Structures are given as structure tokens and as C-alpha cells.
Amino acid sequence: MLELRPLQIQTQQLKMTTELRQAIHLLQYSTQELSDYIREQAMENPLMALEEPSVPPTPSASFSSTSSNSSEQRDPLSFIKQEEDSLQEDLLQQLRYLPLDQQQRRLTSHLVLYIEEDGYLREDLEMIAEECGVTEQAIHEALQIVQTLEPAGIGARHLRECLMLQIQRKASEKALAYTLVRDHLEAIASSNHHEIAEILAVEVKDIESAIQLIQTLNPRPGEMLSREQPIYIQPDVVVHSSDGQYTVRLESDLLPAIHYDRSYHALLKSANDHEATRYLQGKYKQMLWLLRSIEQRHHTLLNVSQAIMHHQKQFLDKGIYYLAPLTLRDIAQTCGIHESTVSRAVKNKYIQTPQGLFELKTFFSTKIRTYYHQEVSATSVKALIRALIEAEDKAKPLSDQAIVDHLQTSRGLVLSRRTVAKYRKAMHLPSSSKRKSQGAHY
């Protein structure tokens, strides 16, 4: 006979606290984004007093790290946003008018922050679910809500989904167009209209009519809402060279310094006004968590940057053609952290090196084999392809196969024509026939 009795089981579980989520977000921020976030927090926290950088950053890619100790006062009105609303603000405004419960509003607002300027959401949904402490199903349901916003196609994870979302909004003739995008997108791009018509048992004219509808769709819907002004890039990390030795340092001097406003100290310790004291104690804890999160961000970013530059010493000495193959796992193992932490640390970050200004993610690329049993990075190969195309005779541009042959002869690279074509397209360089017709204008 089975006996029912209470059983105590001890398990370990990682919970995503508000503070842990804040630390993750701060790691992803660039220096400029972190500066803006600190100012936003200071506006909501009376205990935070900010000391602005004594010398504002020069809006230029060739960054100067000169600073002084003068206590120059800056007008707080200079931090008020001058440009029009961003894509994210537009979408958040739309969400405010939807009848959502508290969790739906939290999750949809969180998803909107991951939508890129072209309207796509490319972040892994499983990771977002983990950050928010909810199931993947809850995130998928929130994404479905986001995808109902305007313009149609917003929040798509890839081109096929973007087009399908737009077709669903069309009132007529959408069934065939939807099927074409869902099942035959590559085929219609290669103009196999008769073959598709036979497969779907429809007239060729119906296929062509559906394709005309598809051609009216917008593959980058976010650009309809994106109105931000161009921003100047400031490096988050700087590499200095001295006597053949390289040192890596953060540009943390560009951040506002956070100080504790002691004018509230008496009220914070007061036993008379319990409500005010509890409020200030909460704000004090928030300030401490922010300081710890910023310190942790600095520590992680510096360690990751140092590890990357250690792997890329040939690049520092000789330039872009000498980039070594490098993966997130390589750096994660070097630093003793998770690959996702490395990914967040390098996101939207730039590094000033003796070879120029680069995005940190530039230093991660796959391996390309050579006939000499060596390995070079795909990024270096792309740079070589670009250099060949830029130096070619514009009247007789190099074909992809000619580039393959040249790189094999001069560098010993083992490449296929398809690989060269893929890299060329990734750099938005037209084919040889189009380059010949366009002349030097590409």
C-alpha cells in the first residue's frame, strides 16, 4: 500500500533579481548609453548627486583622452533630448494605448527595447525570457502583441516573418502571396515562376500578381519610424602603445561621477518620519546597486578587452590583414566567464587602437584554412577582398573566381567562389558586371 507523506527536497535555482537584470543591462550599454542611464537614475533618486566630466568628449572618431580637474558647471537643460522620438519610444507610446495586464505590459516594453533600427528583433528569445524570469511561451505571446504594432512587420525575427506579418494585414489577394513568402521565398527571388506555378497548381499570371504584391512590402519597416540624428562614435576602450608594449584602459572618465548627497543624511537616519526614511533607504540601496553594477561592468569589459587584444597582438603590430581567428568561447575560457557575458560585454562597444577605431565584435571571426596549414580570420579575408576590388581596373573588374585565384596564389587561401560572393555581398559590394556598369561609383 502506497503511503503519502510530505517530502522535503533541496534544490538550487538561479533567480533573476531586479539588481541582476540591471547589471546585465549595464554590461550591454556603451559609454554614452551608460552616461544617459546614470543621468536618468539621478533624476529619480534624490540621494544621487552627479559630477559631470570636466571636459566633454570631442565628437570625433579620433578620440582624445585629455582631461582636467576643473569643476566646470554644465547646464542641465543641455541633457534634454532635442531630436524627435526614437523607434523604441514610438512603439512604447503605441503600447500605452493597448489593454494589457501588468506582466504583458512589462514584457512587451522589454521586447521593444531589443528592436533594432530596421525594425527586427534579433536577440535570442530564450535569453530574454531568462532575463525577465518568465517562460519562453510568455515571451512568445508578448512578441505576438508587439508584432501587432505599426508599421506592419515590426518585431520580426527575419525577412520571411517580416513579409508574412505585412501580408497578414492585407485585405485581399493575400493567401497566395503568403504561401509564396512562407514556402518559396528563395524560388521567387530566382524568378522560377513557371516551376512554382506547377508546384502550387495555379496560373503563372496569379504567381506574378502575388509577386507584385510582395514587391510593395517593406523589408525594413523600422526605418519608417526611425528619425534619430546621426551620432558620433566615442571609444569605450583605448589601447596605448609604448616601446612595443600595449596597455588597455577604459574611458570611464567620460561618465558622470556619482556622489552621495549628504543633505539627506539626517532624514535617512531619522526615527520620526518612518515613511520618508523607508523611501530614502530604498533609494540608497538603489544607488549602491548602481555603483556596484557599474564597477562590475568596468571589471568585465576591461578583462574581456585585455583578453581580446592579447589574442590580437599581430593585428596591433601589423594591421587588419593580420587579425587572428577568435571566438566568444576563446575569450570566455580565458576570462572564466560565460559566452553570453562576453557577447553582452562587446555589444555596441568600440575600441581605439594604434590601427584605428574598431567595434569590439570585429575581432571575432571564423577560421579560414590556407594551403600552408595556417589559419586566418574571415574578417581579414573580407578586408583583402575589399582591397582587391578597390584597386581593380574599373574597366575590367575582377570576377569572384578571379578573386579566388588571386587569394590562392598570393596568400594560399582555400576559398570557394561561393564564399567570396557571400563575403562580397556582406560588404555590400556589387558583382563584377554591376561594378563595370557603375564604374567607380560603388
Automatic annotation (TrEMBL):
In this chain the RNA polymerase sigma factor 54 DNA-binding domain maps to 278-436
Example GO CC term: the record gives:
DNA-directed RNA polymerase complex
Region annotated Disordered sits at 50-76
Q: Which terms are listed as keywords in the entry?
A: DNA-binding, DNA-directed RNA polymerase, Nucleotidyltransferase, Sigma factor, Transcription, Transcription regulation, Transferase
Q: Which InterPro entries match?
A: RNA_pol_sigma_54, RNA_pol_sigma_54_core-bd, RNA_pol_sigma_54_DNA-bd, RpoN_core-bd_sf
The secretion signal range is: none
Low complexity bias locations: 60-71
- RNA polymerase sigma factor 54 core-binding domain location is 81-264
Tell me the superkingdom of the source.
Answer: Bacteria
Q: Which GO terms describe its biological process?
A: DNA-templated transcription initiation
Extract the Pfam families matched here. Answer: Sigma54_AID (PF00309), Sigma54_CBD (PF04963), Sigma54_DBD (PF04552)
Mind listing the GO molecular function terms for this protein? DNA binding; DNA-binding transcription activator activity; nucleotidyltransferase activity; sigma factor activity
The entry's family comment says: Belongs to the sigma-54 factor family.
Name this polypeptide is given: RNA polymerase sigma-54 factor
